[in-house]
């Protein structure tokens, strides 16, 4: 049976995902406003966007080492407040170097936050014995909706970035610190992976996570985040510059995208239990590719909205299931596997943001949308990795309990 400690841990972690969704949405949906505030040119903007995932990837690698000494909950407890304070720094500055510094801190803290957050999610899913990972990412999507709505209000009322960001941080920062008291993790299965250490002693040695076995999931993670970064970093600019929308309407696509990811993730765990992770990932990949195609040929803003709607429904299931699949492959070294896999989250952002920008400038933004479409379709080649049995990789395997655990 699931203990109260695990239930509280699940709720507090879901709240952490929600807060991260708010924070990230407040940043990315106001990229045009950030660009105007600091006078960042179109040519320099991709470099700023790329710096954040580079630093986040570095921090994710470092987190793998840190959690060998302290638990992921400790990392998460301190990384999330730093992310929120860095967001305030982005809104408060006036010089380009101040924007660079704030975004640099944001990137480093986000890397540690994402890695530790998903480590804990994988651990709790193992303890529950059933799919719950999509629920955490659904909370992130809900936060993204709230954050994008706040950004819309800021654009509508012509509020400064600092005024837009300050109320969210003032309310959520204390709440996160209080909620972190209930962070919890599941037990490491007995004999789960060769070389695995006892619970509380940190993850198994790196040799228990062969990169060749993790590589298919790394590629899928990169493809998914190339698609996601295209939406988060370019949807506002695409709607405004290509489809001729107003600045206010340009904040809506990300909100639409987050609404549909919320809907997809809210029922996604049920879909995984019913049809299996492989079937769900395949269906999501095809739907996301259709969404990119609609965006690329959209004659106006509302057709673009339809494309982003399909994108949200398709992409939303891929990333949570990629983390969950890594946890199944390496149940006794899931922290290591998640930290390494999380790096490819930022590889996707690093490639996706400048790639779409470069293709948009050199060719057309419509044509640029076809590249993530093809990459998302490539996920179909690796879909079988989502049904992998950890026993095939030399680790132990505990069967999920037949009893329903709440």
TrEMBL record:
Residues 214-406 form the Major facilitator superfamily (MFS) profile domain. Keywords: Membrane, Transmembrane, Transmembrane helix. It is found in: Cell membrane. PROSITE patterns: MFS. It comes from Streptomyces salyersiae. This is MFS transporter. The chain crosses the membrane at residues 12-31, 43-62, 74-93, 99-120, 132-153, 159-180, 279-298, 304-326, 338-357, 363-383. Coiled coil: none annotated. It comes from the Bacteria. It holds the Pfam family MFS_1. It is a multi-pass membrane protein.
């Amino acid at each position: 049976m699931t203990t109260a400690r695990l239930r509280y841990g699940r709720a507090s972690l879901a709240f952490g995902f929600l807060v991260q969704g708010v924070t990230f949405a407040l940043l990315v949906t106001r990229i045009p406003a950030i660009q105007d505030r600091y006078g960042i040119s179109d040519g320099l903007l991709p470099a700023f966007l790329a710096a954040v995932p580079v630093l986040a990837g570095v921090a994710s690698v470092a987190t793998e080492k840190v959690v060998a000494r302290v638990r992921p909950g400790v990392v998460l407890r301190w990384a999330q407040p730093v992310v929120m304070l860095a967001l305030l720094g982005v809104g408060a500055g006036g010089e380009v170097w101040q924007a660079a510094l704030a975004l640099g801190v944001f990137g480093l803290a986000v890397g540690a936050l994402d890695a530790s957050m998903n480590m804990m999610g994988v651990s709790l899913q193992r303890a529950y014995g059933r799919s719950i990972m999509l629920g955490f990412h659904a909370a992130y999507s809900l936060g993204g909706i709230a954050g994008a709505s706040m950004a819309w209000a800021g654009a509508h009322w012509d509020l400064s970035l600092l005024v837009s960001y300050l109320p969210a941080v003032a309310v959520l920062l204390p709440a996160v610190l209080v909620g972190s008291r209930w962070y919890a993790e599941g037990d490491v299965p007995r004999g789960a992976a060769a070389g695995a250490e006892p619970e509380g002693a940190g993850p198994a040695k790196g040799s228990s996570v062969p990169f060749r076995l993790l590589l298919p999931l790394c590629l899928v993670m990169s493809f998914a985040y190339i698609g996601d970064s295209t939406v988060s970093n370019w949807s506002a600019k695409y709607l405004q510059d290509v489809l001729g929308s107003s600045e206010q309407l340009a904040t809506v696509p990300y909100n639409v995208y987050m609404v549909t990811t919320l809907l997809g993730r809210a029922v996604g765990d049920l879909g995984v239990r019913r049809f299996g992770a492989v079937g769900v990932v395949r269906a999501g990949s095809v739907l996301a590719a259709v969404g990119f195609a609609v965006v690329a040929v959209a004659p106006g803003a509302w057709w673009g909205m339809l494309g982003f709607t399909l994108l949200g429904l398709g992409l939303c299931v891929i990333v949570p299931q990629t983390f969950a699949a890594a946890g199944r492959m390496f149940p006794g070294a899931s922290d290591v596997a998640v930290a390494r896999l999380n790096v490819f989250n930022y590889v996707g952002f690093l490639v996706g943001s400048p790639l779409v920008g470069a293709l948009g400038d050199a060719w057309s933004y419509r044509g640029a949308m076809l590249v993530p479409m093809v990459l998302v379709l490539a996920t179909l080649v690796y879909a079988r990795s989502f049904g992998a049995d950890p026993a095939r990789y030399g680790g132990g395997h505990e069967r999920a309990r037949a009893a329903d655990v709440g």
